[in-house]
Amino acid sequence: MNLKNIFQTSRLTPEVFGLVLMIALVTSCSEDFLDVVPQDRIDKTTFYSTAGEVIIGVNGVYASLRSDYGNLNLFTMREARSDNGQLNPNGQSEQISLDSFNETPGNLLVLDGWTNMYRTISLANAVIQNGPNATGDPALIARAIAEAKFLRGLTYFQLVRLWGQVPLRTSITDVENAAVASSPAADVYNQIVKDVTEASAALPDSYTGGATKEVGRATKFAALALLGKVELQRGNKTAAVTALNQVIGKYSLMANYADIHKAGNDNKAESIFEANFNPSNQTGMGLPANLVYQSEMTRLGVKANGTTAPAVIPTNDLISSYEVGDLRKNATITTSVAENKPYVSKYLDLAAAAQGHDINLVVIRYADVLLSLAEALGETPTAYGYINQVRARAGLGTIDGTTPGTFIDKVMKERRVEFAFEQSRWFDLLRLPAAQVTALMSAQLTAQQGVTVIVSANDLLFPIPQPEIDLAQGLVTQNPGY
Amino acid sequence: MRKKYQTFKILLMSCLCLAFALIANAQTGKITGKVTDAQSGESLPGVNVIVKGTTIGTATDANGTYTIEAASDAVLVITAIGYVTQELEISGRSIIDISMATDVSELDEIVVVGYGTQEKRSLVGAVAKISSERIEGRPISSAEQAISGLTAGINVSQPGASPGDLATINIRGIGSISAGYSPLFVIDGYPTDQRNFAAINPRDIESIEVLKDASATAIYGSRGANGVILVTTKTAKEGKSQINFGVSTGVASIPESARPKLLNGSEYVQFYKESFANRGQAIPDYLTNWDGTSTNWQDVVYRKGAFQDYNLSASGATDKASYLISGNYIDQQGTVIGESQKKYSVRLKVDYRPTSKISFGMVAAPNVTDIRRSSPAPEDGTDWASLNSLAYLLPPIVPVRRSDGTYALPADQSILGPAGQLANPLELAEQYKRKTQLFRLLTNSYASVEILKGLTFRTSIGLNFASDKGQTLYTPTGPRFTLPNVSNLNLAQSQEIGWLSETTLNYKKVINEHSFDAIVGYTAQANREESLNGNVSSLAVNGPTLLSLGDRTTLTASNGISENTLVSALGRLNYSFKGKYLLTATVRQDGSSRFGANNRSKTFGSIGAGWLLSEEGFIKNIDFISSAKIRGSYGTTGSNGIPDFIARPSLNPVDQAFGSGLVKGVFNGDPGNSNLTWETSKKLDIGLDLSFMKNRINLVFDYYNNETTDLLLSRSLPLSSGFAGTLTNIGSMRNSGFELTLNANVVQSNDFSVTLGGNVTNNKQEVLSLGGANELFNFFGALRTVVGGELQQIRGTKAIGVVQAGDVLPAQPTAVPGDIKFEDFDGNGAIGDFLSKDGQLVGDPNLDWIYGLNASIKYKNFELFTLLQGQAGGSVYDFYVIQVGTDAQGVNLSKEFWYDGRYVSPSQPGDGKTPRAGALLATGGAAGVGFVSSLGVQKTDYLRIRNITLSYNIPSVFSEKYRIRNARLFTSVENFYTFTKFIGGNPDARRNSIGGPGLIGGSRLSGTSDGRELALTSVPSLPLPRTWTVGLTFSF
Q1: Are residues A370 and A344 in the same domain?
Q2: pTM (2 decimals)?
Q3: A294 to chain B: which residues are within 8 Å by CB?
Q4: Who contacts B576 (Cβ-Cβ below 8 Å, separation ≥6)?
Q5: Superfamily assignment of B2-100 in CATH?
Q6: CA distance, residue B400 to nearest chain A CA (Å)
Q7: B620-640 pLDDT per residue, tens
Q8: What is the interface pTM, i.e. ipTM, of the complex?
Q9: CA B893 to CA B385: how far, in whole Å?
C-alpha cells in the first residue's frame, strides 16, 4: 500500500493528525517556554544572599581598585600632574593637557578615571547594603562589609583629592533615579572618616587563614593608616597622630628600598595595603608598557611590551632633587641605553610576559606612616626620628632641626623621593598652601616647556567630567575655572 | 501522449514547408502558421490574426494554427489577451509561426508575502520584488551585495570590503535608537537573520520580496518593525527536467581612482619638517637625513584577486513530485594580501504530492565558508594593525626591505609617534594567520493537506544550525604597535541551534462577488547559541595550532551562552469585492523571552485597503492608463532586537589576585529592567500603483510615516552611578518619506528593446522624545541624539577657516597664522573643546536620499545592463583623517586633506581651509580642540556605477545542435566606478565601538558608547574592489 492509498483510504487521518498536532503545540507553550534563565551570567536579584557571595562581592571591589591603580590615566593624574612626571610631548594632546594644566571638562582620560573609581564605589555599596541581609557566618559577613567600607573610603579619598566636591553615593543606584548631587568636600571627608573608622573597628589585624589567597585584604591597621592620612590631608593633625600612632611598630621597613617593588615581593613586612596584581588570567600590572622603552625591555630580555615613547617620564626637577648617594634614585629611575634618556624603572618584572608584571602597586606602606606621622607631629625630635628611619634605609645621613629648610619642606622633599611614581606626589602637594603649589608648579612647568606657564588655584582640582554634569539633571556643578 | 503530439507537429511542419516552396512566388496567397506561447511552447487557440489596415482576420484553432489570405508585402497583427501584441511583415513568406510573449502586467505578477503568495493585483501592502535576473551572473559571493539600488526604500551599505564581510541593510531608515535595525530575513518561510541570507548561493534565489509597510509586515508582528526581506529559492519547473551549469571567472582589484591619495617620500619629509618646526620642536634626523626612499605602501598591500564561481544544478518535476539539487563553489581572493574566501554550498529541495490534496516537502541547504585574513579583525581594534591600515599609515620614507633583504620597519629610523612602532605588512601577512570557518544549515520541511475544498492545513518544522570556528595564530619576531609581543594562539567556536514550528490553517472562498482568503496560525521558535574561546601565548613551536604548545600560565578559556524563545499566534484576512475593492487585516500576538517578566506579550496588527481604479468604468476607458490602484495601510509592528537576558540585572565574574593566588569577584553586568517590553512601530503607508501605455510604463509611489514608540533606549546614566546606561522603553522617533519607482520599456520591438528603471527614496528622520532626556550620548559625547534632530548627530567645535596674517582673534589670543580658526559658539571669549559650550552639531550620519538607476538595452541576442546606485545627505565624523591619519602620530597622511592647499606662509596661504602642518596640536589657545571638530566631518555622498553586464545569448541554431537548451555568455563588472568627494577608502565604513559590540551595561564603563557608532568612519577603510568577470551559463 503506498502513501497515496493511506491517505485515500482513511480520508480523515490528515485532519485529525493536524488538529492533534496543533492542539499539542498550543498547549505545550506556556509562560515556562518564555522564561529562559540565563546561564552565562550571575543573576543579581538573588546574589549577595550568602556569606560566600558577599565575599565574592567584595573581591570584585578589590578587582576594580586594581584597575584604579594600574590605570595609566589615573597614574597620569596623580603623578604626571605633579612636578615628578612629564608627558611625552609627541603623545596624545589630551594626555599632555593633564600635565600642562589645560585639560577641559571634556577630557576623556579624566572621564575614564572618574568612571573607574565610581565603579569601585558602586560595587562597594552593593556589598555594604546587601551584606547585612545575607545568611551564613556573621563574622565573615561583618568582615566583608568592613572591607567594602575601607575600599569605599579609600576611593572617596582619591575622588575628593582629585575633584573636590563629588556626588556622594553610599547606596545601590536606583537606575530610575540615578542622578545624585555633588556634596561639598567636607561632607565627603566626613563620610570617609566614618567608613574608615567603622572598618578599623571590624577588620582583623592580619590574615592568618590557611589560604594564601587571604593575604592582601584590608586589615585593621590599613584602615588606621588610611584614617591617619585622611585626617592629615584635611588638617586634623591631632586625629592623624592618634590614628597613625596605633600603626607604629606593627610593620617594619624593608632593608633594601629596591626590594619593595621587586617582582614577587607582594605584601611583605613594609606593606600595609597594596593593589594586588598577578599575571595569571590577565590580572598582571601593565603600567610598564607605557613607562619603559621597548629597547630596554629587549635589552633586559623582558617579553612584555614596552614603548618607543614612554607616556610619563621623570622630570629633570625630580632627578636633581635626589641627594648624592640616595639609593632610591637608581631603584626608581634608569637611563635607557639606546635612547640615553631617563625612564621610570620602579616597576619592572624581568619575567613579565604579555599578561603583565607580577608587581603589586603599593597604596600604603610603613614609610608612609612614618613620614605622615612626622608631618602630623610637626617639628619635634620624634618626627625627625621617623624621617631618619626612612633616610637611613636610603643610605643617607640623619637630619634634624639644624638642617637648612623648613620642616614641611624637608618632609615634602623626603616624601617626594621616597614615593616617586607611587601616585602620591600630587596629593602631597595639595597639603601645602595653594599659592605655594601654584608657584612651584608654574616654575617647574615653565622650566620644562621653555615658555611661561601660569598655574592657577583653580587648577588644583580637575574638572568634573562634562558628561556627568550633562546627565545629572543640574545636580552636579563644575569646579571653578572650567 | 506528448510524444504523439511531437510527431504530429513535425509532420505538420514538413507539409507546411512543402506548401511554402510551391507558393513562394505568389503575389497574394494563403499564409498559415502556428501560434505558441513563448515560454511554455504550448499552442495557443483563439488568437486573432488580422491583416493590418484591413478587416481581414481569423483566429487560431484548437491546435493553435491559422490560415489567412494576404498580400506578400502585407503586415499581420497578432493579438491575444494576456500576450504582447505583435506586428509581422509577411515579406513573401507563406508559413509564419508565431511565438507570443506573455504580457506580464504588473498586476498579474505573483508576489510572495508572509505565510503565502498573492497576486500583485490584490495586494494592498507595500511590497517590492527583486527578481533573480538582476542577481545572477554578477561577480558577487552573497546576494546582499546585489540588492543595492534595485528597489526603493532599502539601503544596503558595505562597511567592509574584504571577502566575507557582511553588509548593513535597513529598510526605510533606522527606526530604533538602541535596538537592532536589521530587517527580518525569512528564507523559504524560516524567519532568521542576515547571516543565513548572506550564506545563500546567489544563483539559488528565485526572488527577493521586500516588505515595507504594516500591512505586509504585521504578520511577522514582533520582528516586522524594521521591514522584512523574504527570500524564495528556486523550485523545479513542471514539465522540464534540466541541468544548468554556470562558470565565471575574473579578477578584483582596487582601482587607482578609489585609493586614498597619500604623501610620497618627499612630500612626507616636507610636511613633517614643517610640522615639527611649527610645533617648536627639533626636526628629527630621519627627516633631515632622508635617503630618497619613497614607498607606495598601497602597492605593497593591495593586489589583484582572482574570482571564480562554479554552479551546477539539476531539477525536474512531474505533477506528483519535483526536485532541485544545486551546488555552488565560489573562490574569491581579496584585494589585500592574504585575504580570501571560499564558499561551498548545496541546496536540496523536494516536494511530493501523493494526491492533489496532500503535499510534503523539504528544503535543506548546508554551506561552508572559509575566510582567511592576515591581520586582526576589525573588532580587535585595527586602527593601527590591519594590513589596510598599514597601507594608509606607514611612512613612505620606510623601504619595504632592508639592504640585507629582511623586512624594514619604521623603528629602524626611530620615527616618532605610533608610526615608529608600526609593522611591515609583508612580515605581518606571513606571521598573522586568521581563519574563520562558517557552517550554516537551514532546513524546513512541511506537510500540507486540503481538508475541505478551500481549507488547507499546513504544518512545518524547521531547524537552523550554525557553527562558527575561528583560529588566529600570530608568531611575531618583535614588538609591533597594538599587536602582542609574543606568539599567540586563539581558538574560538560558537554554535547556534534553533528550531521553528509553524502551523497554519488557510481558507479560500469566493461567494459571488466576494472573495475571501484567510489564514490563522500558531508558531513557536527557539534559539540557543553557545561559544567557547581558548587563548594561549608563547608557543614553544611555531606552526601547529595546539593550545597545549603554549605557556600554561597564559592559557585562558571563556564561554558564553545565549538563548531566546518566541511564541506567536497570527491571523490574516484578505477580502476583495468585485475584484476591485480590497481589504487586508492582520493580527499577531507575540511573546518573547527577551523582555521583563511583567511585559512579555504584545499584540500587533494592521489594516490595509486598496481600490483598483482601473477596474472602474471611468478609468477603464482611458486607453493611456493600463492599470491604477490606490492603497493605504496602517498598523503596528514590533522589535525585540536586543540581546538576550538584558532585562535581568546581572553580575559578571572577574578575577582578583590575593597572596599568590586568584579568587573570584564580580563586576556589574546589566542593570536590568523587569518592565522592559516591545518597541512598537506605528506604520502608515499610502501608495499608488500606475501603469501606462499598455504597461510599458509602470510607476509605484509610496508615502510612509513610521513612528516608533516605547523605544528600547539605552538611557545614559551619570557615570558616577556605576552604570553607563540602562535599557528602557522610553521615547519615540519618526522616519517619514516617500519612495518612487519608475520602470519604462522605452523601445520595444522584436530585435531591439530598451528598458529603463529608477527608484528614489527620501527619508526624514526625527527623534520625537527621549523620555525626558534632552540628548543621548554616543562615543564620549561626540555623537549626540537630540530631540527634534536625527540619530547620532556629530557634535564638535566648528572650524571656520585658517588664521591669516593680521587676523585678530580674541578667543584665540595665541593663534598664529596657519592655525585652525574656531567659532566661539558661546561667545565667552575662549575656545573650548567639543564637550564645552563651543561644541555644536556639525553633521549627521543619516541619509536623506538613496537612489538607483538601471538600464537594459537588448539588441538581438545581446543585452547590456547597467546599474547605478547612490546616496546623499549623510556625513560621518572621520576618525581616520582627524585622529589616526594626522601628524600627531607620525604616520603618512591624506594628501587631499592635509597637504594640498595647506597654509605654509603668508605668501603661500593655501586654500584657506587647510591649516599649517602641526596645527592640530598647536592651534593657538585651543590645542587639541581640532580633534573633534567640523574639520573631521566628511560627507558620505556618492554615486556608484555598481554593475555593468554585457551578455550574449547563444543562438538556438547553434545550441540545439549540441542539445543545449539555452546558453549565455557574459562579462560583468561590479563596482566599476564611484563618484564621491569622500577622502580615503569607503564612505560606508564605520568604526567599531570602543568597548565591544554589547549594547549597554556597567561592564563597559570606559566609555558612554552603546556600541553602534552610526556616524564614525572606520579607521582606515578598505576601498570596495572592482571585479571583472567573464562567464558562461548553459542548460540542457
Answers
A1: no
A2: 0.81
A3: 421, 479
A4: B122, B514, B515, B582, B583
A5: Carboxypeptidase-like, regulatory domain (2.60.40.1120)
A6: 21
A7: 788 888 889 999 999 999 888
A8: 0.88
A9: 16
